[in-house]
Every structure is written in C-alpha cells, then in structure tokens.
Amino acid sequence: MTNTLRSIRRGPSTPERLLVLIPGYGDRPEPFLDRAASFDPNEQWLVVVVEPQIPGDRGPYWYNVDENGPDPVALASALRAIDALCASTLTETGLSEDALVIAGFSQGGALALAHLVDPTSTVTPRAVAALASYLPSRDEELIDLSRASQRLVLFAHGKNDELIEPIRGRSASKAFHRADAIVSWVEVAGGHRFDTPLIDELAAWLTALSLGDEPHAPPI
Known about the structure:
Layout: E1 7-10, E2 18-22, H1 29-34, H2 36-39, E3 46-50, E4 65-66, E5 69-70, H3 72-93, E6 100-105, H4 107-117, E7 127-131, E8 152-158, H5 166-178, E9 182-188, H6 198-210
Parallel strand pairs: 2-3, 2-6, 6-7, 7-8, 8-9
Antiparallel strand pairs: 1-3, 4-5
C-alpha cells in the first residue's frame, strides 16, 4: 500500500511512540503541528500531521456530506490513505501498532474512529482520540465495532460546539463503550475549535498513555 498523503512532523529521531494527527474540513496541518508543544510539551511522541487530500476553496478537506451522509467514495479513499500513512510510518520507525495513537479533530476525528472499526484497515492503533467529532455513517459491512474492544478511545467535545452537536460525540462514545472499548468521554467549555480546553484533555490523556495508564471515564 503506497502512502500518498502530504504530512509534516516533529519529535525524536528514534521515537518510542507515534501520534498521527488528522485535521478537519478546511484545516491545514501547520497550525496543528504548531500546537504540538501544548499537548506534547516534552516531545515524547513522534507527531505526524497529515493534510486533507481534496483541495477546496475553503481549504483542503476529506469528504463532502449531503442529505445522504458522507460521500462514500471519498470517505473510503481517505481511510485507505490514512491506513497507508500509518503503515509506512510504522515500518519507517520500526514501531509496533501498540505504539500508535491516531487522533483527529472534527472530520479528522471521524476518520480516526472510522479507521479503527473498518474491517479493511491493515493497521489497528492502540488508541484513538476523537475531538469534537462523530462516527460517520457507512454501510454496515464497513463498520466492525468489535475491532474497538480493549482499545483506548478518548471523546472530547465542546458543550457549545456550533457545528457538531455534543450528542453526536456522546452517542459515538456510548457505542464504543458497548463494544468494550476503554472509553473516556468528556464535555468541556467552548465551541468547535482545536484549542484549549480540548487540547488540554488530549494532553492529559496522552500523558496517561505514556505513563502506561489506561484512562477510563465512560459516558453516563
């Protein structure tokens, strides 16, 4: 599988942990990498930020959404590209899947969740973080929630998110919890931005993972 995504990175030359970060609709990777010091202040992770693959007037994006849901062709293409990027980076670094975390914001978080439960994915990360996000609707044969069993999954959502209602993130967190994922669900103040306090929640969760902990705060 050939990696075709543009990505930028920072971190140690011989990393022990890999964080693949997926921006959302209209987002470029540079501002996300600029915030890496906020969620990885000690550079414990090789942070790789990918760029959405479809160019648009409002910035690059992964897929369009209409009354029928996400464009299935574009969504599938994005998932294949993310999978290839993860596989090639693991090979390059010599790391195992247990060292891999995939995190995403908004549409990027939707991809992170969909990749984890997609039966065609060749890479299964140890953990996934979905910030201000949701599980995108797909054909049932392309969703296997059992793949999330015993995987750590963070759902963090702004209470005042004006683009993606918190109920969508909570509903996804409950579905993953029922599938025996090790879920952490948190609502924070603020709206739909990759900024504090969402980044604070990501930082605390990543720190716990690096210490070997398994944070668990399932939705009620």
